[in-house]
Structures are given as structure tokens and as C-alpha cells.
Amino acid sequence: MIKLIATDLDGTLLSQVGEVSERNVQAIRQAQAAGIEVVVATGRSYKSAFEPINKAGLSCPIICLNGANIYNIAGEQLRHITMTKKIALEIFEVVNRENAYFELYTNKGVYSQDRENFLDVIINIMLSAHPEITRAEIEKRAEQRFQEESFVFTNDFRAVINDPEIEVFKALAFSLEADGLVRIKQPFLNRQDLTVTSSGFDNVEFNHPEAQKGIALEQFASQYKISLQEIMAIGDNYNDVSMLDVVGRSVAMGNAEAGVKKRCKYVTASNIEDGVAQAIEAIL
């Protein structure tokens, strides 16, 4: 019997324009009414994850930054896993050498290079990923992401990382050049002090090895005395694998990466076909 549902956001619970569909909302409410805990598990920051959930009228605990933080429904932080400054600097130097776009997720907000560069990168990436969506809609969504996150713009990431008041939770590199992403990942693969993953074809994400969705989900579930076998997890990309691999009912989205689908017991419809709702309805 499923007692807890964990769902990713982008490419999973959210539509292409970053919203929760009415069918998904109703399915989550039905699960909660049946006594099933529902938790969001995302690579986003808490603020960015909370916005679309709150807009949809839902209340859920949130595992964010790939498991570096957990927040309860009241917005209280329950988990806090940071990476070392030495590793953060190593990552920045490699990304900078490749001239790729870089974001640093910290306790003081998300650091980026500059607003125009941010918007250009996001628009180009979204246009590449969703050619069926108009540029006007893409630009609107990119601007929305700018509003959702607490962005801080800097020209000196080294100074940011070395600031004693800054704690780094996650580093993220964006590039439309596949070879560039490979070169960024390569120096950090098979290291014990870092987890390297991805939430899309266009990015690489770096976290402390304990900051993984699967580890955070197990910690969260233990508070409710829920076993991993009593959890259904739903996701679409490689930063979801750590939770999909350990739960009793793993569900890949119809739009999930092929490698993710192979690891899951079930495949639901895509995020634009209310795949999360269909997965929930199947167990109610």
C-alpha cells in the first residue's frame, strides 16, 4: 500500500509553461484526502518550487536543491547539506574555462552572471527544448523564472564562494554544446566528495554526495514511519534516479529520458498529458 508520493516538478508535475494542471491538482488533493503524504522533490530552490505549488492552491512539504534542503508545509527547514568551498571553486573554474553559463545556489539566493545573459541563455535553451512553443511564450516563461528565484548578479564568483557568510548548496552549468557538458562533467566523475547529475539535456548539476533526492526522501519518510516500499516516486530525469531506484513503486514520465524509463517499474503519460495525475489515479 502506498503511503507517500514523491513527485518531481519540471518535466513531471509542471506543464511546459511551469504550471500545475487542474487534473494534477485534483489527483494530489484526492491522495491527501485518502491519507497519503505528498511531497515535492526538485532541483529547484525552495522559493522557486513553492511558487507554482502555492499558485495551484496546494500545500506540500518540499525536498529541494536535489535533496540539500527539506522544508515542511510551514516553510521550516528540516535539512541543510552544503558542499565545500574548495569543491565549489573547482567547479566554477572548469565551467568558466568552457565559457558555459553558471549558477550557484546558496543561502543568500541564486548567483548568476548578469540579467541579460541569464535571459538569453534560458530563452535559447527553452527554444531548443520546446520548438513547438512560440518565442513570445518562451520569453514570458524565462521572465517568470527570473521572478520566481532570488537572483543575485555578480561578476566575481570567486569572491562569492570565498565569502564566509555564503553556504553553497548546488552548482549548475548550462550549455547547448553536448561536448562542452561532457568536458565539464569529466573531472568530477567517480569522486566520493561530489554528486554529478542532470535535470535536462542542457545542464549539469553538482551537489554534496548526501544531497540526493533518494537520501532526503528516505529521511523524510522515516519521520512518518513510512518504508521505502510504501513510497511511489515520479520523475523524468537523472536527478530523479536516486529516489526512483529505491522506492517500491517507481514511475517514469512519458517524456522521461530513455535511461530513466528503463530503471522504472511503470511509465505514465507525459507532463502535458497529466502523467502525474494518471499515476496517482492508478493507486487510489
From TrEMBL:
<dbReference type="InterPro" id="IPR036412">
    <property type="entry name" value="HAD-like_sf"/>
</dbReference>
<dbReference type="GO" id="GO:0016791">
    <property type="term" value="F:phosphatase activity"/>
</dbReference>
<dbReference type="InterPro" id="IPR006379">
    <property type="entry name" value="HAD-SF_hydro_IIB"/>
</dbReference>
<protein>
    <recommendedName>
        <fullName>Cof subfamily of IIB subfamily of haloacid dehalogenase superfamily/HAD-superfamily hydrolase, subfamily IIB</fullName>
    </recommendedName>
</protein>
<dbReference type="GO" id="GO:0005829">
    <property type="term" value="C:cytosol"/>
</dbReference>
<dbReference type="GO" id="GO:0000287">
    <property type="term" value="F:magnesium ion binding"/>
</dbReference>
<dbReference type="InterPro" id="IPR000150">
    <property type="entry name" value="Cof"/>
</dbReference>
<dbReference type="InterPro" id="IPR023214">
    <property type="entry name" value="HAD_sf"/>
</dbReference>
<dbReference type="Pfam" id="PF08282">
    <property type="entry name" value="Hydrolase_3"/>
</dbReference>
